[in-house]
Amino acid sequence: MLKQFVTATAISGLMISGAFAQTSAPSSAPPAAEKAQAAPVDASKFVAAQKPDQWLATKFSGTDVLGPDNKKVGDVNDLVFGKDGKIEAVVVGVGGFLGIGQKDVALPMTAFEVVPASTSDANTGASSSTAAPSAAASNDPNDVKLKIAMTKEQLQNAPAFERYKAPAPARSTTAPGGGGAMGGGSGARPQ
């Protein structure tokens, strides 16, 4: 019995070591056929870096929206892009508490003025120009807020923004096997 166990263990060990020996380490150089098929990359077709006058959509998500008195009236929940890639609207969440009871309204990007975050205090409406601006806020062109000429009350009374919902696919009136209409052959849709 012990002899069979030792033999089985030895055979298992040889099989496992053979399996490890057959798996090869990935080669750092691609095969010659892949090298021949790889086309050179035209670097002019790519954007290599963000410029100081450009913003990322992720930056605007959650950005404070200030009213005419520099008080916070909402925050950015989403951006609506057109097929041409331009921002058509900014979706602003207004009211509510921690997202509960919040209403989304959308305004065209032209309704907003991009202002440095260091120029106002969203909670008090006081200008921070008398205080020493922080080095990060004064040097970061992406540290911004959006300002509009509407009050919080005007935004709360604006029509709610409705997100697009694709229509439900139409039901087929034919049986899965293609054998005619359902419901006794009348061709009517079931109610």
From TrEMBL:
Cell division as UniProt keyword: no
SUPFAM superfamilies reported for this sequence: PRC-barrel domain
InterPro entries in UniProt: PRC-brl_dom, PRC_barrel-like_sf
Residues covered by the PRC-barrel domain: 57-112
Disordered: annotated span: 119-191
Stretches with biased composition (Gly residues): 176-191
Keyword Signal: yes
Compositional bias ranges of the Low complexity kind: 119-141
Annotated Pfam families: PRC
First and last residue of the signal peptide: 1-21
Entry keywords, A to Z: Signal
Protein name: PRC-barrel domain protein
Organism of provenance: Variibacter gotjawalensis
Lineage: Bacteria, Pseudomonadati, Pseudomonadota, Alphaproteobacteria, Hyphomicrobiales
